Amino acid sequence: MDDSKKRLQELVDNPREDLNIELKNWLDFSKPEHVDDLMKALMALANHGGGYVLLGFEKNPAGDYVVAANVAGSKYDQDLINMSLIRRNAEPAFHCQLYFVTRTLGDAIIPVLVVQGSFVPIRCKRDGTKHLKANSYYIRRPGPCSETPQTGQEWNEFIARCVRANRSLLVEAVRLVINEENVPQIDTAPTGLIDWKQRSEQRFVQRVSELPLERQNLFDPGSYSFSYVLEGCSIESLVDLLKCLSESQGSESGFPPWWVPTSQSLRPKPFEDTIECWLGEDGLDAAHSDFWRASRTGELYLRRGFQEESIASSRKENNELVIDPLLLIWRVAECLLHIERFALKAEMPEGSMFSAQLELTGIKDRRLEYLNAGYWPVRGTFRSSVTEARSELTGRCELIGTNLVEFTHSITKPILEQFDFFDFTLDDVRKQIELMRNWKTRGY
Fold first, then answer.
1. I want to staple 307 with a disulfide (CB 3.0 to 4.6 A). Which of 148, 162, 287, 422 is the partner?
2. Checking DSSP bridges between strand 269-271 and strand 322-323, what pairing results, if any?
3. CA quadruple 36, 38, 42, 48: dihedral positive or negative?
4. Shortest CA distance to 220 belongs to which of 314, 302, 285?
């Protein structure tokens, strides 16, 4: 779906409805009927192959669309729409991109939702108001309007469209599930990624050396790093880069990767042609002393201590050093979702590729132990005989959300195998990612 600035400007300046364009008045998400009205349109457009929803328009007596008065002062948030409304109402969930476009006349800022086409049929999960019915499939019908298919021909066209829509993504998704070649070995990692990580490590060592002597061993017990590079990325300025970083922060946990603090003492700072953030000077433990940096060419690096060291010793047997596989899966999934969000904010074109590397250090003699065995007990003793382990992953940015389970499994499997051949399935990862996405408390 074309989300170029030129296309979006054209839509808001010349409002009209079509099979792939839906215009609505301002919506209040505290009202269930407004939520259901929006969801019906979003699901229909996703099943149609993609489209746009423009908010803030109404018809005048002449039948023309004009900007409506926003009497409720409605506010819209992309994470709320994607993480709450869509996930609660649609199966499978899909992603919308939210833009705010100022009309050329300067009379309004219009929220525009860009809906990507789905290559699987999307159904409604629950009964709602008069707009929604559980287990219904909504399509775009002449009018235009969003309704369930009414004839056999419409059903045939609906299924055929889902097969055709984003066919290349479907082929790639199947390949990822059945082919392990998407996990290259360390000697095949892109040179640009390795060079970026090495330069970032040198800067990290420099920052640690500037700490008071008693804190310079902060990361000695071990840590993990996650580095990634977006091919062909070009962001105009450090100001724009900071904006992309701020808008790419996740909400899956209370302490997201590449967190952008706003307080004077912690906020990121420019360094040469990059932005970096260093929390190690704040006196916190290693798990909350992130060092991260980012460049205008789409290179990002994160170093964080193990959270296992911060959890009360009473929860660890004999206080020995451990690695919690669930924590690793959650953190890696968060990092992968950051790639997807950052690529969107950086306006990367469809088909853009990423390369990522995960590395764990200080893991020799550590034992796998799930610190909340009620969710995923580790049965048996699995201990690492190596000091560090790393793995790489390459793929298309827009595939991450659809294939988060497969991507996460692919990049964590080579790491956890170093613990006495510990094995886990895609279904194990799927369950943990569902827990992560539904987690309501902060800081696990």
1. 287
2. unpaired
3. positive
4. 285
Distances 436 to 342, 348, 375, 401, 429 between C-alpha atoms, Å: 20, 27, 11, 14, 10
Cα 301 from Cα 290, distance rounded (Å): 10
Give the amino acid at 397.
C
CB atoms within 10 A of CB 120: 17
Q: How far apart are CA 21 and CA 60, in angstroms?
A: 18
Residue in 283, 279, 380 with CA at minimum distance from that of residue 325: 380
pTM: 0.60
In the beta sheet, which residues pair with residue 23?
A: 54
Place of tokens 């296309």: 7
CB 352 within 8 A of CB 230: yes
Q: What sections of 14-140 are H helices per DSSP?
A: 32-48, 78-79, 87-89
Q: How many CB atoms lie within 10 A of CB 87?
A: 16
pLDDT per residue as tens digits for the range 234-260: 999 999 999 999 999 988 877 899 999
The residue to which tokens 């959300």 are assigned: 401
Taking CA 339 as the corner, what is the angle to CA 378 and CA 327, rounded to the nearest 5 degrees?
Answer: 15
- The letter for the amino acid at 69 is A
Asked if the bond preceding 61 is cis, omega within 30° of 0, the reply is no
Tokens of 84: 């709450």
Other CB atoms closer than 10 Å to residue 343's CB: what's the count? 24
**What value does the mean pLDDT of the chain take?**
85
With CA atoms as reference, report the closest residue to 388 among 365, 370, 371: 365
For residue 260, give every residue at least 6 positions away whose Cβ sits within 8 Å of its Cβ, in sequence order, or none: 242, 245, 246, 249, 267, 268, 277
Taking the C-alpha atoms of residue 309 and residue 291, their distance in angstroms, rounded to an integer, is 17
Bridge partner residues of 359 (DSSP): 225, 390
Partners of 271 in beta bridges: 274
Residue 259: Cβ within 10 Å count: 19
Map residue 378 onto helix, strand or coil. coil
Residue found by looking up tokens 């800067």 in the block: 203
Of the candidates 19, 325, 302, 276, the one whose C-alpha atom is nearest the C-alpha of residue 146 is 19
Compute CA 18 distance to the chain's CA centroid, rounded to the nearest angstrom: 30
Question: What type of residue is 396?
Answer: R
* Size of the chain in residues: 444
